[in-house]
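Example protein was shown:

_____
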Amino acid sequence: MGKDELKEFLDQKYYQYNTPNFIESDPIQIPHSFSMREDIEISAFLSSTIAWGKRQMIISNAKKMIEIMGSSPYDFVMNFNKEKADEIPYFVHRTFQHPDFIYTLASLNNIYQNYGGLKTIFESAFQKTQNIRETLAEFRKIFFSCNFPKRTEKHIADVAKGAAGKRLNMFLMWLCRKDKSGVHFGLWNIPQRNLMLPLDVHTATTGRKLGLITRKQNDWKTVEEITNHLRELDPEDPVKYDFALFGLGIFENF
């Protein structure tokens, strides 16, 4: 498939799947239930953090987290303390277990109380580095700047060591990409042309079948490879093709 033919094919699939109907079956529906920016970004972070496994289970467990927080994520995070932690009912999503959830809430409290919030951390890091990988690495340092359980480390990808960072890249895509169809939020000032594709098993498999990936591993170098190929198709919005690649993989078994 030539470049022009590939672009036409992926553009068609992008418009097919980038519609408000996509929200109904995706974890992005969780932040879409809020209107205040801080509620959106906190619920988006929590939902994306547990975004692996069956989608319906992800959505169900993300809703449980929000219910535990009294459906007011920002207020809950700002007032989180040891007493509140002791009152939280047991929560688990696959290997993301109760201690991971408690530490995540404690870290978010630290982030909003002492660093100006998620938006400030990510925008400041990107402004300084002009690089998504370095931005994600800086966020990870801050996220784990409190006394954390060793087990929680695996739930925030270490892109500095080569991890693909699927969930972190998806979180950034949700918050930064300005989506005319209203699926993504476009609330943060990180240019969408700089975003990196959230590489998962579906996008990777489809990407290889379409010749967008030559590497065998699903790591950061592969994220760079496929995103660079997608930039050739749309330099200003390469990650829009996540809709096409994901849709082809999960809905069409491409």
The mean pLDDT is 96. The chain has twelve helices and no strands. The two ends are 15 Å apart (CA to CA).
